[in-house]
Amino acid sequence: MFGSGGYQPLQQRSPGLFVSEPHRGLSFDYIPNVSQNDFTDASQGWLSWVCNLIITFLVYTVTFITFPISGWFVLKTVPNYEKIVVFRLGRICPPKGPGIILVLPLIDQWQRVDLRTRAFNAPPCQVRTLDGGLLLVGADIQFRIWNPVLSVVSVQDLNVSTRMTAHKVLSHSLSKRTVREIQSERLKLGEYLGMDINEMTRPWGLEVDRVELVIGSLVQSTEEAPPLIVPPSMSGMESLTGPIQQIAMQIFTQSFSQPKPEDSVTVAVTDESPLAPSLTPSFPHSVEELLSLVQLLLSESLVSRVQACFQFYITEDKQQQTYYVDLRQGSGAAGVGLSPDPDVTLSLTAADLLSLFEGTLRPFAAYSMGRLQIQGDIRTAMKLEEVIQLLKK
Questions:
Q1: What is the pTM assigned to this prediction?
Q2: How far apart are CA 354 and CA 40, in angstroms?
Q3: Across residues 212-231, what is the average pLDDT?
Q4: What's the chain's average pLDDT?
Q5: Residue 39 to residues 12, 43, 232: CA-CA distances in angstroms?
Q6: Strand 308-316 relative to strand 91-92: parallel, antiparallel, unpaired?
Q7: By the 8 A CB rule, do 103 and 110 touch?
Q8: Quick one: which of 30, 101, 165, 273 has the fewest CB in 10 Å?
Q9: Cα(253)–Cα(381) distance, rounded to whole angstroms?
Q10: 231 falls in which pLDDT band (50, 70, 90)?
Q11: Half-sphere exposure of residue 280, counting CA atoms within 13 Å on the CB side?
Q12: Residue-wise over 326-339: b if at least 16 C-beta within 10 A, else e?
């Protein structure tokens, strides 16, 4: 990688007093072979070596003579989870610690390196998948430093470089997958992404321990079958992979999308007389009208079937309003404001709320498309279908 394609010097010069061999001009000549604990610097000439030895001896002597005072400045305490990287007269030394270490004044420059596992969140980015879909995908990444010297001498800003590398690998690798593969094989893709990131960050002394994909909404659908969405509240579903997870998700989807047996037969009676007035009331056009209609439908039988409290955060004209429907005791209650202890919290726009109760938008479809955000048990949230069915009658 750094052979024939490296930087070459403008002109060849013979070795001088301070350099024992000609400069090769490669990008990483200043980094010793620290991965094998070899800190010898072959580029140091004999005169430079003698000067370093004399200056180091003088500093040691002064430090020893003034030790009761200099001890406060030269002795450092290093915990078990840290290492100290020391540059003595500008040249790298073996890492020191843990325990009490000696740092010489004037000639030593040192830097602490934390070896504990760290984590950061890669913000969601739009990924163009192999089947033409546009998906929002982010990642939670955990990493640690395995070589403190390389993390200091090989990269200027380790955190920024790691974030940029993870973002690039995330976009490049997922663009070779379909939407269905990304959503159904999330854990396996996280392992592959971890290996890809490690190949690029290992020369920096960094190792990625875990990559967990965070799949957002589908911005642009594909021409194929609709993708599978794994609800975050379904514990144990993410451990399944491949066809097994797809079968489980199909069963889960059908349990909420198929109509109930008692609702499968519908008899519609219409009056074809042109003079007969229409007795069917129009559907509410605002959230307040919908709330008034729901209050008329509350009953003890509905409470016995649902046994849940729903808190709604409705966004309309860039303003957020709060409503609640409490179906846990008595004949139920509905109104404006916050419920003291809701079972499920639903966040959506006013137009989507009216579409849900009108029946033109299914709750599970709205959740899959990202138009409905649910906090709590998704099975409890789907009991809202009981209220929707009453409005249709």
A1: 0.47
A2: 73
A3: 65
A4: 75
A5: 26, 12, 49
A6: unpaired
A7: yes
A8: 273
A9: 14
A10: very low
A11: 9
A12: bbeeeebbbeeeeb
Whole-angstrom distance, CA of residue 110 vs CA of residue 101: 11
Least confident of 112-121, 151-160, 216-225: 216-225
129-161: b (≥16 Cβ within 10 Å) or e: beeebebbbbbebebebebbbbbbbbbeebeeb
Q: Looking at residue 226, what DSSP letter applies? A: P
Q: What is the pLDDT of residues 41-87, one digit of tens each?
A: 666 678 888 888 999 999 999 999 998 888 888 999 999 999 999 99
Only one residue has tokens 């072959």, namely 42
Q: What is the pLDDT of residue 312?
A: 87
Percent helix, strand, coil in the chain (nearest 5)?
Answer: 35, 25, 40
- Tell me the DSSP string of 158-218: HHHHHHHHHHHHHHHHHTTS-HHHHHHSHHHHHHHHHHHHHHHHGGGTEEEEEEEEEEEEE
What's the pLDDT score for residue 18? 35
The answer to whether 308 touches 288, Cβ cutoff 8 Å, is no
Whether the predicted pLDDT of 1 surpasses 60? no
In contact, 162 and 143? CB cutoff 8 Å:
yes
Phi, psi dihedrals of residue 195, rounded to the nearest 5°? -70, -40
| pLDDT range class, residue 33, cuts 50, 70, 90 | low
**Is 145:115 a contact under the CB 8 Å cutoff?**
yes
Q: Are 146 and 206 in contact (CB under 8 A)?
A: yes
Distance CA(1)–CA(5), nearest Å, equals 7
Pairing of strands 308-316, 344-349: parallel
Distance (Å, rounded) from C-alpha 384 to C-alpha 393? 15
What is the secondary structure of 308-362 as a DSSP string? EEEEEEEEETTEEEEEEEEESSTT-EEEES--SS-SEEEEEEHHHHHHHHHTSS-
Other Cβ atoms within 10 Å of 197 Cβ, number = 24
